[in-house]
TrEMBL record:
Protein name (Swiss-Prot/TrEMBL): Glycosyltransferase
Pfam families per record: Glycos_transf_2 (PF00535)
Domain of life of the organism encoding this protein: Bacteria
Keyword Membrane assigned: yes
Annotated source species: Paenibacillus chitinolyticus
Classification of source organism: Bacteria, Bacillati, Bacillota, Bacilli, Bacillales
Entry membrane topology: Multi-pass membrane protein
GO CC terms of this entry: plasma membrane
Family: Belongs to the glycosyltransferase 2 family. GtrB subfamily.
Amino acid sequence: MTPKVNYSIIIPMYNEEAVIQETYRRLKVVMSEASETYELIFINDGSRDRSAEIIKEYAAWDETVKLIDFSRNFGHQIAITAGMDYASGDAVIIIDADLQDPPELILQMIGKWKEGYEVVYAKRVKRSGETFFKKWSASLFYRVLRASTDIHIPVDTGDFRLMDRKVCDEMKKLPENNRFVRGLVSWVGFRQTAIEYERDERLAGETKYPLKRMIKLSLDGITSFSYKPLKLAGYLGVLLSGSGFLYLLYVVYLALFTDATLKGWPSVVGIMLIFNGFVLLMLGILGEYIGRIYDETKGRPLYIVRECHGLQKQEGPMPK
Ligand code: UDP
Ligand code: MG
């Protein structure tokens, strides 16, 4: 067993060599102010640059630095999950490696935790240095998510948060593959509170969340917490066949009781395109769910670790 510490800081990194040294420095400054024991768990999510080497150098002379080195890129949400599996702290803090989440806020989080809150999440009141599209799409996503689920998932909140050991242990019991960690934290419950902050610009390097990954994360969020998109097919079906039937009655009336000649093909083609479009859309939505069911049935492990520095997997419930 690795000795227990007060705080475990989880830092996922994917090609972050340009920022990781500064992140390390800032975290050290902040955590030395807390004057309690801590560990910095860096997860190297298959970086192709020197991120892992840099951390290994630090680990050689700083025993608070630990490294989980993945065999390839498994994705941000999985990297966080691995960090939670290995963390031994009484409180676990997740923070991005790019300093968009200011480490200084950790002290405030710790303050709230000591007041008795079990989850302290950081809510962004402002995001600087991000494109209009990113801000707009993120805001849209959080609102769609809120509208489609019954669990309260706070809007405009990323994974930057503190969790009590109890929360972390419960999270470890959730084995799902397509993970949306911030939703799962809401799902497990406990006493939660927010602190507000302004999200800075990335210190260096570029975002590791291109549009494709943002869409994947959004779909993971919505499909893991809601069946509503599936029900949409039923509602639309009732609406469309209902109005189709009424229209049919009208056509029969025209044919039987008036002299109107019934001209058809533009309307037929239009209706066909629209209806086939709906059907394909619904098949696509079904596909999103079925693909995820398939992922779960395969029962593959969430991640594969090449090597660990200064860490052992913690006792207690493990993901599959
Ligand atoms: N990240 C990761 N694996 C990935 C993609 C991202 O570990 O496949 C890490 C990345 O190094 C960073 C955090 O996840 O520490 C958030 O990523 P990023 O800052 O690129 O996302 P953004 O802030 O632009 O949404
Ligand atoms: Mg970032």
